[in-house]
Amino acid sequence: MSAVRNFAEAAMNTCRLEERGIVVEKLLEYLAYKSTFESAPKKEDIPDFMERIAPEIALELLMAADYYDS
Question: Which SUPFAM superfamilies is this protein grouped with (predicted)?
Fold first, then answer.
């Protein structure tokens, strides 16, 4: 556990993100969506998450999702 405390984030209890708030919000929304529907039966009608993404943040969101491996 002491190795974890060597990180600045652990020492300060903060984690700085370089993304805009709307992008972080969408990433978190996707994680909640994924958690809700990942165990849903294949027959269930699952809403398309892409409909929730505004075109003006799509590229920025894609880059952030790739960086955070979401």
Answer: POZ domain
